[in-house]
Amino acid sequence: MEMLVTPAWLRKKIKTEPDIDFEVGISVHLFNSIGMFLPPDVVEDSAANDQHIIELKVAFGLVIRQLRMRDGFTIEKLADKASVLVEDIVAIERDPHFELGPRAVVKLAKVFKIPTPRFMKLSGLACAVDHTVSEEAQRFVAKSEGVSSLTRTQRLELNKFVKFLSEAE
Amino acid sequence: MRQALGKYPLLNRHTGEEEIAILYQPIAVSNVDDFEKRWHSVMHEKLRTLPSQDEVRKANIQDIHWKWREKQQTRSSQLIWDSFAVECAGETQGLMFVRMFAVAQLEEQNGLPLIYIDLVTVAPWNRVGFTDTPLYKGIGPLLLGTAISLSVDVGFKGRVGLHALPQSEDWYRHQGMTELEIDGGHPGQLVYFEFSSADAMAYVSEQ
Predict the structure, then answer these.
(1) Complex-level ipTM
(2) Which one of A42, A128, A167, B81 has the largest count of C-beta atoms within 10 Å of its C-beta?
């Protein structure tokens, strides 16, 4: 590849360069708005937090699976719609120890039309413990079972939980 | 295969002297090692001293969560991605990932292909928001000039687009990129900037 910029060009640019940062990537506001910016290892009481996060991720995996079934998507179809790997969808649905990234959660929230902040908390990525989300998630899990298709009751419970996740905080 | 694209002078702000950096394509495992072993530890040390979320946001350490190793491993085998690293004083000082194809949004070039800058970051000790005494200057224009060079190289005539982080918006305005409305479809609601072909060529031609 031929470089169009030269050392002399860069020297000139440096002289007029403002002292401002220029990073490009996923926004801190997205993380900050849901209190997830502090990494888990600097949050106090991390052992209890770990277990709590696992419980949330169980609920998250279940929600993803049931939403997928509700909307008639195969795993491959959902992976394609959300632009994530098939194996990541499998892991999200089945492995609460799987470390998913915030971009995957944002994309899944968009596919299922659920507001990102609550979805992010349910995924366990948000370090700010939200007891409301936690309690509703536990209630939802308790009423759900792993079956290959949703019963009418499960569909009602899913819709109720999705409605809660979609409510403004 | 990794190649050195050239040697470029960065300004060491502490000494006022030039130091030579090497621009590489693509990002190598060694660059990821630098991110994980050096950048990360520096950011973590800083993070522990910050008293509030507001201070954390201002400190410009959003990439503390970015999974560079995973990106490097996954993207290195995918032709849709290219990447660049800036090394100086034996360390990685800047990194960039570009997507080889996206669609221009500016009216004058709407629908035409462009190079999309996906990730740009520098070592935390080079960041104005992170430290009162940032070290190297010049990495930003070097990487932006590199993206334009790549755009020309693949036939896109210099067209480049990106979504700027909030603290970076003024920098891209200063470079002469055109700002479009806040992109509601982009995670994080970031402002989109684009270089027209003419503006990009003017940018790299400035003497």
Answers:
(1) 0.92
(2) B81
